[in-house]
Specification:
Shape: extended
Largest sheet: none
Number of helices: 4
Distance between the termini: 41 Å
Strand content: under 5%
Structural class: mainly alpha
Helix content: 55-70%
């Protein structure tokens, strides 16, 4: 919150780079764009993100660079988790499963948590 310009709606005083709203939206859109059977929906979601980006800038809660950062972050996340990188994600997934069992196995066995 640097006090530059007029903010038309109240907004939390946190970091605006990248835009959380648009990062989430475009992550879903770009993920769909990378899958051959869902590209039409991906393009629709990506296109619908443009008025969202403009609205956030117009309302004064983001700068245009925040939107470019959201697009770059979303594209990178979609690529890293996309269909061509599944073999790279498998070891990470196995490690996460082992860590979960090590950290929460007792609680799950005791019925305090669900698996």
């Amino acid at each position: 919150m640097i006090g530059l310009g007029h903010t038309l709606i109240p907004h939390a005083a946190d970091s605006s780079f990248p835009s959380d709203h648009l990062t989430l939206w475009w992550s879903a859109a770009f993920s769909l764009l990378l899958r051959p059977g869902s590209r039409r929906v991906g393009w629709a979601l990506a296109t619908l993100g443009l008025p969202m980006a403009w609205a956030r800038i117009y309302l004064g809660v983001h700068f245009p660079l925040d939107m470019l950062g959201a697009a770059a972050t979303a594209l990178r996340a979609a690529w890293l988790t996309g269909p061509r990188n599944e073999r790279r994600l498998e070891p990470i997934h196995r490690f996460a499963q082992h860590a979960r069992r090590a950290l929460f196995g007792r609680f799950i066995a005791a019925g305090w948590l669900r698996a």
